[in-house]
Each structure stands twice: as C-alpha cells, then as structure tokens.
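Changelog excerpt

This revision adds worked examples to the README so contributors can see how folded entries look when concatenated. The first example is reproduced verbatim below.
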Amino acid sequence: MKTARCVYVFFIFLKSVNEIVGDCNLSLKNDLGHPSPVYIKRGKFLAPNATTGDILVRRSEILLVGCPGKNKFVVLSNHTTDLDVVEVQCISGTTFHAGRWVGDFKQIRCNAPPWFTVEATNISCHDDHRIYRVGYRLADNFYTLYEACFDEGLLITLYVRHELTPEAKYHQLGGNRPSFIDTGVFGKVRMANVYALKNQRTRINDALGDQMDQQYITKKQFLTRGHLAPRADFSLRSHQRASFHYINAAPQWMRGNAGDWAALEDALRRRVVSRGKKVTVYTGTYGVCTLADSSGGQHELYLHSDENNNGVIPVPLYYYKVVYDLEDKTAVAFVTINSSYYNSTIIDELTFCSDICDGNRNYSWLRWRSNDGTHSFCCDYDEFIKEIDHLPELNVKGRFY
C-alpha cells in the first residue's frame, strides 16, 4: 500500500514538472511579436506545423531572433536593446528567456519591421545571366527565401525559384501590405515610376499611336506588379514582406493577375497541402506581349527604354509555373498568356503544347477562371522546355498531379 502511494505521488510530481518545464507551443495567430522579427530554428526559418498550424519548440531549445537592417533592434518587453540578433531559449509554454530577461514570446519584437536583403551571387543561370538571392542576413549568415534569375540587360526576371510547403496553409496575419522596393537592382530606373499609370499610357501611345492607351487602360484593366513567388506561399510575416521586391515581380495585366493566375496560385497551395509534401516552384516570364495599333498591326510593349532608346522591362507574353517534386521526380508546367486582347486565332498560335489539363480528372483540383479574358494551358515538362528553356535541367521521370 505504501509502495502504491509512493508511485502515485511520484506520478503527480512528474506531471507537475512537465507542466512547469514542458515544451513551448506557440500560436501563429497570437504568440508572435509585432513588428515581427525573423526567427531561425536549427539553421532554418521557423515554420508552423503543417497539421496544427502551431509552432513547437522543445524545452531548452534555442531560437535565433533577428531584426536585420539599419537602426533595427530587438525589443524585449518594453526595452529596446542595442542588438539586432539575440538567442532566446524555451522554458515552457510561451515563456522564453534571453540572458537575464524572462518573458512571453510575443513580447519579443523589433522596433521596426526587419529589412530583407537582395544579393547578387556568382552563380550563373540561363544565357549567362545571374542568380540573385533574397532573404535575411543574421549573424554573418544568409538565409535564403527565394532565388531569381535576373536579366540585367532587359531588367526582367526570367524566373524565381522557391519552395512551396504544406505549411502554406497557415499564415501569420496582421500588419499593413508593404510597398514594393527595388534597392538599386534596376540601376537608376525608378520602378515605382515605371508601373505608374501615366507611364503605362505614355509607353502604349509611343508604341501604337496617340490616344491608343484609351483602348487598353481602364479602371479594371491595367498593368500591375505581378508577384512571381506569391506572398501567400509564405507563412510568416517577415517572409511575406520579403516577397515585395521588384525582382520578384513583372508587368502583368490585371484581369489575368486576378483571374487565371490567382486561381492557379490558390489551387496549387491547396494541392500541396492535400499531398502533404513540399515542391519546388519555378515561376517565370517569357517573350514580349504585343498590342494592336489602329490598323491592327501588332507592336511589342516595353515599360522603359535604356540610354540607347532600346526597350527594357518588357511586358511578358507568357507567365508560367513549373512545379517539381524532387522526391518523386515529377513535374508539370502551367502557362498563362499575359493578355486579354488576343483573338482566338492568335491564342491558338501561342498555345505551344498539348493541354494536358483539359478533360484530365487528375487536374480536377485546378479550375481556371475562364471569364477573365485570358487563356491558360498545361504542358508536360519535356514539351514545355522545347519552347521555354530558361530553367536549369531537372531530372523528370513522370508527370506531377
């Protein structure tokens, strides 16, 4: 009897200890500070659990918390430190400590939103262009969110590579939608001015003739900053913020951006969540969109000119996503013609592969928004790269569904 009582007391003791010094479980919605820092766990960006949406940190596990950027500092409770990076350790629940500070995890924040970095690398991509990496630099280490193959001559991104994971189902909410920035990648070109409606109208009239802009620019149709790696593919606010760089955008007609392209982005996230496996996504642009003048002649459209009056920042003819499952060695390409102004004859000419989604039940998870005036189709990887050969060679043995 005495032994049984001792075992019972010992069990209660263990239960109490576990409650006091158990793991830390953080809610993506309620337990992250604002302005939200950058969080690194075991050398990688912190991410929610794909099933619950919460973030698990083991007892005594250390996270790196950073607020990179000029005059950006970590705030602990109401004290602004002189540090842009601190190590914090899980005690239990939502309680962490950093040095002598002990407090709730949401009391760890930045004095201002952290500043992401865009760096040119020494890695080349298609036709000797250069790979840029976008992410955050903390404690002399660079943590990459996505990479861009950038044409420094035409000032256009050929493709962006990022990983889409099942965690994309969950998002840290709050905060204002940031503005796009260019950080000197485009030289002296002010990208905000390039996308201004006044410039769009000027460039159309220069290419097609006076007042032709009135046929193409309306309240519902204009050229927008088309995200390549979309904001919603990233769970944490600091990651979402880093998607707002002009190297991660290209001119895209609004009807397509809010139509087929938005449908594809949403459907692909749902598909990755349902499959429970990450994929690599190459999102790119190709060719130059044309518009018809008053006589029906087609003219290429660029949003800027260089010092020799050559067109730069082309309005792409195509937007595409190549989805690659590295584990299964499967891939598929989704393509959108970036215009609602082509007739059926031109669309047929521009559709360069057999549409493998059309009538295929394996792609029932994708529903194009056919009323947006644009045209989209799906290609087998081998057929796609015969037309668009921007990407690095992928080992593809089958079709992604």
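The second example, added in the same revision:
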Amino acid sequence: MKSLVSSMKKELSLLKPSDIRTFDEFASKIPGIIKFTMGEPDFATPEHIKAAGIKSIQENQTHYAPSNGTVALRQAAASFLQQKYAQQYDPMNEVIVTNGATEAIYTALTSILNPGDQVIIPTPIFPLYIAITLLNQATPILVDTSKNGFRMSPEMLQEQLDKHENVKAVVLNYPSNPTGVTYSQTDLDQLAAVIKGKQIFAICDEIYSELNYDAPHASLTKSLREQTILLNGVSKSHAMTGWRIGIMCAPRAIAQELSKVHQFTITTTSTMTQAAATEAFANGINDSDAMKKEYRKRRDYLFEKMTSYGFECAKPEGAFYLFAKIPQGLIQDDQKFIYDLAEKAKVALIGGSSFGPGGEGYVRISYAASMEDIITAMERVGSYVKENKGAKSR
C-alpha cells in the first residue's frame, strides 16, 4: 500500500517548517543566549484586562460565544477603530472576531482564492501569507521592495498587474513585520487608485497599528473601503498574544462570506478571552502608549548601535523590528550568519531570507526585549563584528 502521506494535499510539499521557529528552538538550547527572535511583546497584559478575563471565568462565562464574536466585543472593537483611526464598521454585520490575526489571514485568503488565482505580496514580509496562498492552490507574486525603502510603489503595483492576468488580491502589512516600515496616507491613496474598481481585494494587516512612532497610523480603508479586508487585534497593542483575539472587518456582503469559512474553521474563539479583549478595546484605548514610548527608546538605541557596527538599517517607523543588512566582511548568507552569531556571541536574530525576496543578507531584530538585554546583546554583537570582520562570504 502506498504511504498515506503521499496521498495528502499536494500543496503541503511546497511548504517547509517555519525557519523562525526552527532557529528559535535551536537558539533556546544555548546557555546564556539573548534572543530577539519572536514577535511578541515583553510587557505583561494590563491588570484591568486580566481582571476582566478572570471575572468572566468566575461568572461562568465558559460556554460557546456567537461564531462572529460576542456583541460586546464587536461593539467595543468597532468603537476603538472609529475613535482611533476613523474606520467605521457596523459591529453587527461587518466585524468578525478571529483566533488572532493569524486565523484572520487564513480565513481571508481561503475565502477569496480559487485555484490559479494570483496574490501580489510585497516582500520582505511575514511568511504566513505566502504559505496560505500556496495551500489554496493560488500563486504568490512576490515583489521585492528592498530597493524602494521596503515599500511597494504604485508603479511597482501597476507593473505586476500588467504582467499578471489573474490577480485576485494584494496583501499589505503596515507597519511591517519584518522591517518596521510603514506607509503614509498619500502612499496608500496612490496604491488604492491603481486597483480601485477592479475585481481585486486588498488584505490590509494592521495588527501593529497602535505602534506607529512618528506619525498617525494611515490606512487603505480610507480610500478603498469597498475592496478592503481589514485585519487587526489586541495581540501587539495590548500585549495579549496568548489570548488569541483578532478582528477582521469588511463591507457587509464580503463579511457574510468570510464568516462562513471562519465558522467552519474554528466555530468561535474562547468566551473568556473575548471578555478580556472587550475590556482592552473599551477601557484600554491608550494602553499601548507606555509600551510605545519604551519601544521607541529601544529602537533609537539599537539603530545607533547597529549602524555604528556597519549594519545598514531602515529606521523603523512602527512595530518592534529592526531589519539590518549584514556588513561586508562578515558571513553574507544570513542563515549561516545567525547560527554563527548564536554560537559565538550568544545572540539570536532571525535571518532575513525567511521573509522572502529582498530579505537575503539581512537580519531581523525583535526589540520586544528588556533594555538591559538589548545593551548586553549589542556589546556582544560589537565584539563579534570586531573579531570576525574579514571572514570570507560563504
């Protein structure tokens, strides 16, 4: 009998285990290592939010919630988006509560893609979009933005539309994981103009919207609401990654279809975590301010140190990542570099090639870590550069 594995979904053969998690597991076994690998806030969930979750359990709110989320959470989320970003969505018909932004990405792409469709994905980018596109028998069109400040221009977008006839969606993540770069409202308006009125969805992942450092958060929803599927949540804004609450918003007719895939994928998210997220959106509207202030300090320190060591960096405008080009004279293969750095300097970064074309030769630093660890790690990186400069590229 043939192996049952060989009869599984053939698209699985196109996927590899996550480079990020594989390396993180390796690095975790090195004694004394300082890790900047995972995209997770190092702050604790605010006390008032934890209390709301505990109260929910104590009051026996431990049964199924409505599939699209509790009315209270959808109302709180809609109010939050309106107050913060002037994004207006009907909580009853245009807001879906998801199992983190991850499930929202899965649901959005699975709902809209047919075999043979194409998805324009500017890279470097969080690799989940690519994997889910492939699983849906669609083709990711990867657009290297490294020569344009890690932003996709309207000209780059138009070029891809001219070259490909079956584009169903464009993915945008801003502020970006892994670069920390974001778009201005003018940038987004110009991108919107390229696809407005076409049979193309815009999937806008704004999970880092609350972590914009130098300018107000901009959004494609302001110029292309009718074609946009908006993703957000509380993971990064309120340090709630483990609570697994995301938000997906779209015009009513689109949201009705999205809710079908959502319902048959997870049924619903947990009731007590929805209570906590309701508190976050309703009464923690500015909870991210203190975190953002600390992230900005870390960004400035890291940027100064890494550039002084010869790394070329795009200065992050949001999120909590620094994307740095490995200096000449050091190992240029980013995957080999991060293993060498981990073993010799006991500092763990992520190789840029894990994020697609344009990431080769870069490393991503997640500065969701204490300032003490950042200072120590930078001392180690400085010593590593000094001791290893001149190594042949390999």
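Reviewer comment on example two: The domain at 4-44+288-388 is CATH 3.90.1150.10 (Aspartate Aminotransferase, domain 1). The CA atoms of residues 145 and 152 lie 6 Å apart.
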